[in-house]
Specification:
mainly alpha, 2 helices
Length: about 50
Amino acid sequence: MIVTAMGAKSDNSLEDVLKELIIPYIIVGDAKSPRRVLEAIHEGHRAGGEI
């Protein structure tokens, strides 16, 4: 699943649900903290390699 986030405020509300269901996840991009797109791409690439 890929979740895209846009805006200046991080929203990682899905994290609580994933923890409760014991589903592995990695928070990247604006869900982690609002930054520039290059950082989000780098984090997403790194997370994809960990799967």
